[in-house]
Amino acid sequence: MTDADRRAMLNKVPYVTLYFWIIKILATTVGETGADFLNMKLGLGLNLTSAIMTVALAIVLVIQMRSDRYVPWQYWLVVVFLSIVGTLITDTMTDELGISLYISTAVFSVALIVTFMFWHGIEHTLSIHEIDTPRREMFYWLAILFTFALGTAGGDLVSEKAGLGYLTAGLIFAGLIAAITAAYYLKLLGPVTAFWLAYILTRPLGASLGDLITQAPKDGGLGLGTMPVSGIFLVIIVALVIYLSRSGIDSPNRGRGPALASA
Q: Is residue 262 part of a domain?
């Protein structure tokens, strides 16, 4: 077995397919609706909800980090909890600390850029096909956390602060993702840049979708409620993860793939 084969086998991030993006958007939506459900519907409050979810995230992250290869249910469980915690971080800054969405969006943008700078400076790559050491994986998850927090702040900034509404905001973010995809295929963007831009933008897209479905009609939503939407989306995520586990179509051993998959 060559060193390249060994590193590919131990890569901790899935081969990026359409299923990857579907689950990512659903997990993002669950992060938005789930945080609102625990905080408001169950009445736990923002601080208690944040504490509980942070502990849960730490537990699933330890399980993920202890594994020596990609395991679908472990990977996506971390993504779901990161989505929830990322949402709660932004909500805490906005609702508890009174920090403007303009400031939080700027802060998380800088934090993400700094993370990428250190990651690339130390590891000389930002490729998700080479998440094969604990240090690279820590950089990866830290970047993911900041993309969720940034996406939450940016999404709220566009949909609520700018007053564009959830539907319009969702269409804007979907259009930006489509433009990035087109730029990638036209070779105007490299795979790493295209992947991370798309990853960041799927957060506000999913959040806008979640708010559109769950918020009351008077607030511009459909009023379906956070509990049923979170439950349905979680069931879909579980079904897709089971399918991926059995089929193995997102195994990192498949190699480098197309369309924002070659990051």
A: no
Alpha-carbon distance of 105 to 197, in angstroms, equals 15
Q: What's the pLDDT at 72?
A: 93
User: In the chain, pLDDT over 70 holds for what percent of residues?
Assistant: 92
Query: How far out from the chain centre does Cα 25 lie?
Result: 7
Which pLDDT belongs to residue 12?
87
What is the helix (H) or strand (E) element at residue 80, kind and residue range? helix 72-91
| Domain count of the fold of the chain | 1
The answer on pLDDT for 223 being more than 90 is no
Over residues 81-107, mean pLDDT: 91
Q: Each residue of 103-140: b (16+ CB within 10 Å) or e? A: ebbebbeebbeebbeebeeeeeebbbbbbbeeebbebb
pLDDT: is 226 or 152 the higher one?
152
Domain of 38 in residue numbering reads as 3-254
Query: Are 74 and 63 within 8 A, CB to CB?
Result: yes
CB 169 within 8 Å of CB 237: no
In a domain, 102, yes or no: yes
